[in-house]
Write a structure and sequence with these properties.
Length: 250
């Protein structure tokens, strides 16, 4: 079972840090100044790969930009998976975070109205009123209760299982593919903020890879265990394989 796998000790691999902020596109005419940092930390667990995602609300902690916000609540984040890697199934574990909801194929306006962008593969958000079911969208509103306020951070975990063909996944391959496609602009990342300097809001798209330390020790999974998404993983796998095929044919 996946829970037993989650409790095993992984082998350290490779990490990179992504800053959402002054280099991002805002849903507002002027960015509010809210910002976040995501640390993508990949590790090997047998034939599978873990992604320990560190989430930091850096509002007020980096050099001011836009409206110069000093307070904001981070409601959720969304990103695509790298097309250069294939996996059979995906499981999500919120660990001790409040980001207990996993969403798929998110349309985030105004960005998803672009034919080139489309939907995000996955997003994580809060299980609070306003975000109570899979039909809701954590990056299109919701109430800020339990979100990350400025200066707070948390971690969540994604577990990727190897394809049924028997080919083992490589944490290094995952890390390199994710970082390469983020740097090239082919892999999109977004974050949603509420309560920006009181009652403002902002959704940011993109950013840049920056140097950063690996996350501190990852907490053990919550008692509830991981959320299994085998069917979702298969759907995303087919989507990514199709995208990779189109790229090769181009």
């Amino acid at each position: 079972m996946a829970t037993a796998c989650i409790l095993a000790v992984p082998t350290a691999a490779q990490a990179f840090t992504f800053q959402i902020g002054p280099d991002s596109e805002s849903s507002n005419s002027e960015p509010t100044g809210a910002s976040a940092r995501l640390t993508f930390d990949f590790s090997q667990e047998g034939d599978d790969v873990w992604l320990n995602l560190g989430i930091f609300n850096t509002t007020g902690e980096i050099e001011p930009f836009g409206g110069g916000a000093s307070t904001a609540t981070l409601m959720g984040v969304a990103f695509d998976f790298a097309s250069g890697v294939a996996f059979d199934s995906l499981e999500y574990d919120p660990l001790r975070s409040n980001f207990t909801r996993l969403y798929q194929d998110l349309n985030i306006q105004p960005f998803s109205s672009s034919d080139d962008l489309g939907s995000f593969d996955v997003g994580i958000g809060l299980a609070t009123p306003g975000n109570s079911g899979n039909s809701d969208n954590p990056l299109q509103g919701g109430r800020p209760r339990d979100g990350l306020t400025a200066g707070q951070d948390t971690q969540v975990r994604f577990s990727f299982s190897s394809p049924t063909t028997g080919t083992s996944l490589s944490a290094n391959d995952f890390a390199q593919a994710f970082e390469r496609e983020i740097r090239s602009g082919n892999l999109n990342v977004a974050a949603r903020f509420q309560e920006v300097n009181g009652n403002g809001s902002d959704t940011l798209l993109g950013g840049r890879v920056v140097n950063g330390d690996r996350p501190t020790q990852v907490p053990e999974p919550a008692a509830a265990g991981a959320l299994g998404l085998t069917a979702a993983g298969m759907a995303l796998l087919k989507k990514k394989q199709a995208a990779a095929a189109r790229e090769l044919d181009a």
